[in-house]
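Please discuss these two lines.
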Amino acid sequence: MLNITAGGMSGGYRTYLSRLVPRLADHPEVEALLVGVPETIDIAAWRESAPSVQWLPLRCNLAARGRELGPEARREIERFAPDVLFVPTARHFAWNGTPVVSMVRNMMPAAPGLTAYPVERVRTWARLRQMRSAVHRSDRVIAISQFVRGYLTESLGLDPSRVGVVYHGIDPVGERDMRPPVAVSDELKGRFVFTAGLIYPYRGLEDLIEAWGHLRTGSDRPPLIIAGKVGQGMKRYYRKLVGMVEGKGLTPHIRFAGVLDRGEMAWCYRNCAAFVMTSRVEACPNIALEAMAHGCLCISTDNPPMPEIFGEATRYYRAGAAEQLAQHIRDGLALPRDQREQIRRNALARTGQFTWQTCCEATVRELRKAIEPNRLMTESSL
């Protein structure tokens, strides 16, 4: 399992590895597991959770299109002699005819029109080119939603028989370590609307700012908390959002909370009056799963794959339709206690379909499918 990146790793991807790797290592069909991660990543906790896994530090050279991992890494892969190579980051890597499985877990490169910033458009184009190269040269491809699978088969022309779907999982919610972030005073508990994620144009946060302009003052305009890291090269975009808030006189009602840790995120999910998903494009949004796992009253765009993930556990609005979003917020906040409790139960039931064990079993199934043709060819030549 080669996690080829430019050296970094998002929080969502760290969660994916920390939940999946121990389960893969314990799976009865997995004899041994070698996991390569960038040498810049601290893997001490992962070593403890998966003691049988062999860990390999990678010096990834993306200028070589993922083909050069350093001589030490290449010697270790040769010694390990894998039956299959799994590259979850959709970077091309080939090794002595070994079957390769790529995974596509980021659809932002497939929507370059969602940013007007030239430098970021170049980065997006480069990411899309890397993804296209990886999926076309892989023996099998894992999509993390039907929406992603449709893009790969219809837009990129992959044979549907080569593409499988494996959803990510979500952790059960516990009560420990929940605490309010600095930006959210205790007096806002149960009254604020919450959204979270990378601050980036594809997130569509303008919808929320416009919607708050449609809400009246007083009890009809609840506090809005926007959590998330400003994306790479997106400081100008962030200033634009802040300017929108100030220009509409909404500064007292909208707060940018910055990056929150897991305990702070959990507190916000559990104590918000509603959670809003404004994204224009996602692959399998972990934040949507997290919100449902905490029983949030959810409001989301109807862009795919949101209906695929939320199902009937949310209220949908058309992306860009700020007045429709504002009305959903009004209606949601006015719901009586018994209806909110039913929504909470529906959300929790929905997340029961997304477990890490199911993700593990489906991943092993896809890896097996990549190995079998190669094994049959070997047996036929004997």
